Amino acid sequence: MTPATTSPESSSTPDNGAASSTAPRPSPTGSGRPRRLVVVGGVAGGMSCAARARRLSEDAEIIVLDRGRHVSFANCGLPYYVGGEIENQDDLLVQTPERLRAWLNLDVRTGHDVTGIDPEAQEVIVRTAAGEQRLGYDALVLAPGAKAARPPVEGLDSPRVSTLRTVEDAARLREQADAGVESALVLGAGFIGIEAAEVLAKRGIATTVVEFAEHVLPPLDREHAYPITQELRGLGIDVRTGTAAKSITHGTDADEVLLSDGTSVRADMIVLATGVRPDTDAFAASGLELERGAIVVDEHGRTNLPHVYAVGDATVSTDPVTGARRPVPLAGPANRAGRLVADFIMDPEHARPIPAPLGTAVVRVGEMTAAMTGANRDSLDAAGIEYTTIHLHPNQHAGYFPGASQLHLSVSFAPDGRLLGAQCVGRDGVDKRIDVLATAIRAGLGVADLIDLDLAYAPPFGQAKDPVNLAGMLGANVLNGTVDVWDVRDLEQVRQTHLLLDVRTRAEVAGGMVPGALNIPHTELRARIEEVRQAAAGRPVGVICQVGVRANIAHRILVGNGLASSVQTGGMITLRAWLGDDADSYLVRA
Amino acid sequence: MTPATTSPESSSTPDNGAASSTAPRPSPTGSGRPRRLVVVGGVAGGMSCAARARRLSEDAEIIVLDRGRHVSFANCGLPYYVGGEIENQDDLLVQTPERLRAWLNLDVRTGHDVTGIDPEAQEVIVRTAAGEQRLGYDALVLAPGAKAARPPVEGLDSPRVSTLRTVEDAARLREQADAGVESALVLGAGFIGIEAAEVLAKRGIATTVVEFAEHVLPPLDREHAYPITQELRGLGIDVRTGTAAKSITHGTDADEVLLSDGTSVRADMIVLATGVRPDTDAFAASGLELERGAIVVDEHGRTNLPHVYAVGDATVSTDPVTGARRPVPLAGPANRAGRLVADFIMDPEHARPIPAPLGTAVVRVGEMTAAMTGANRDSLDAAGIEYTTIHLHPNQHAGYFPGASQLHLSVSFAPDGRLLGAQCVGRDGVDKRIDVLATAIRAGLGVADLIDLDLAYAPPFGQAKDPVNLAGMLGANVLNGTVDVWDVRDLEQVRQTHLLLDVRTRAEVAGGMVPGALNIPHTELRARIEEVRQAAAGRPVGVICQVGVRANIAHRILVGNGLASSVQTGGMITLRAWLGDDADSYLVRA
Asked: Is the Cβ pair B352, A476 closer than 8 Å?
């Protein structure tokens, strides 16, 4: 959504809509349907709601108000337009008011900024270029979306600073890129920030991305973020994490941005992508219940105000895994909720509740993909939920088929097996595995149920034991005690209490091993078991290999010989990713 | 598996394995573990079982017998080796006996052909180059797999006829292709036949494929098979369906194959790919219960013989959707069942039952992919199950993002919403949607639950309303009566009883319309509703558009105006695919 348009000739002109002012207002939860539905916000959730409402009611008056110049535009496509991968601006306009009128008889009014609600009168207050109006409603759906958060950075009002929320924003950034700017700074390495940094770097602009969190894409677990950091560096992007912009000094040639770590960056253009917040300022005075700025709704999108509903980025929902309350500013949940709210308004008898979004998300970064669903480890820790996370690195398709590449997959589950979350990074097949796992989580499956999924297999597409099946097998092993695992996060603790046993080959170990570990290749372990027993001297053994497969075999040999053992899940690949840039200095060369 | 090796010096040499002949045999279902596990068949299910058994028991003796020269080879990769996409034969050998010994202490014996079971003595009879032996077992797992079915075709023993089941088969076919043969005939257009035809055609060989069923890939519904037929033709392949080889005349230069339709094909090489049947002849005399040649097993892989288990292509299972009994010769279920049987043998307390396979399958054909899960319409019809099938043609990712291409997706569900099956054909993103739907079916979700799946969305990967979500929305509409659908299969019946209304634009209709349909573009429908009422003259309206979206909108307009209506699901794209080559002669040009 664009910023509110201000009109110097603001005046109050009563709306002449007969429906709202004279007709008795049926209860939207009763048998009657609203005669006039007003939707505030014509993108994603709002437009889905309006379109669905028309398909359920041929005779309702349906009015969509949007303060911007465009409705139903491709929000998620904006970075790709900046980069030129999407060539034409028109391609971003999924629908136009004219087409929505012709197809669905919707009354779409752009340049209409809703500045307030009068719930008593059942009217919204609308500001347009022509002045202020009031518009009555029988049912009102608020879909105002989110706007860019503006951190308290001195000089943030520099004309070189842009957000990337609207078609106009994207057009301006593309113009700057076309004009041949030399350097760009992206503030924030979330989804939008990463996408923006990539498209700018690919256009030959020296690009820096700054992220306050300790790693890029903060919703990812640390070990999954590192391959993405490396991919960004491979694109020539200067990645700076654990720091933030402190002040921006506007200069004639470029801006000078001072960071909290004391360094500074010169930039010809600055993209502000430090997150979003619900765009609900207009509704605060109306008595609408908000929770940290987000609209509180029930399972049918009802707010605390009668006949007023809300959907999308501006609403708060409960995390189905952790119980945390937060808005989920994602297009998918918004679109689906818009439709379900229309169902409830027009046909409550058949309406399904709006499911709490799992926060499934995906992003392309260079040649890689990162995706996630459900809760990450930080949020599980914050919620005090007991869980185990397993890491796997299987190929996305048969290893003998050309183009095989490794997935980095983690799955978290509760002590009773309930799936809690999953993350995946890789070059191909990432989105598929996360979609399968998102489906499994939504269906309430346990980790061992993943064994039984009949996933499509042919060499170009998967493995006879798909990575998701493998996660189920490993998870089942953990649940029934066939394998005990420990996490790379506990490395230092395990080093102090366990004999670390690295079962990789000598050649592999030569490239770097955890200090103090004993190396016995797993193929020699049966013959050298007494050596391990002596070295362990009563301590349990912590087994490490490259990805976890050989460590599992070694673990079973150790247990079969009466030794206490557990396996570092994910092996050296996970361990190295978790150590990140510190890996080479931490590991010793044998 | 290779055909049985015959040994001229066959003799009976008693096995000297102490474990089987002297030790008391613990019941595998009791608390004791078998001291010797014998596995017959060292590919897929058999090898998965042996490997898992070792990981559960460090001290059991585990012997794998295979009559072939190779174990654990990449069955599904063979066609790609013939085509050269997999370059080296060694890449097909996933494991070797040496490596299996070193890693897992498995005793893998190739060239060991099991010719019978003596269940009383708990021994298998094994024929090797050295003669016949008997080998005792405490637990026996039969994983003999399937062999090529040999239809009653005169001259099928021509040396130009090969199957494509073993590494040796593949090597021979590749040699022939390398030697520059000019023409090839593939008998059977199932998965293997299609893959073989494609790789041969891509090598410049004039290739014909012959299929007895009415369309290629018989498990696909007819309308999904047509795009695959077109893709095969695009590769230069001569596709002949509804016919079969009758006789093969071996000639000096080439073979002459007479087909049942009276035509004939000359071919330098002939690939027999008319399906497989369980390779169980060796076990018939032992009292093993077979059902049409397939081994009958319970949910833990137990056969009717004590201590004898079976897994994989040679076993029969019950279709979880239709209840039909059939073998499912697919690598995924075989591998997973092998593991679960090992669990039951070694650790029955923690063993999960083997799930009945859904038959999820996928195949790459040229630039296209076809995939399916659950029951197709023919099998639902045969089982007398009531169902609705919906067809959709959404893009696999955001339409405005480069590379968008259409999926052809169908989903079948019961009157109570239970998901029964799904099929998908397209250029990209096909396997992902089928995997999600396979997961949903396995989890027992209903079609409307598909609305709630939180699938990963970013423009390169999907849509804010993913095709699977859209299927849920359309399915929910059907279930709650918001939309009534009719199937292209009922076209002639609907033509007789309904007013057909084509709501596409005039330009679209000019390219072909169902004879007798009335054309009113959906954007004009509200204004011309009385025209429809008159033309319908009391008959219900059957609405058609290109993919179904506009027809749904038109349907709601018609219903909103008091007209009975239903929508042809899938629109002209499904209708044309269903008509296939007859489409152009059937449709009229307005």
From this structure: yes
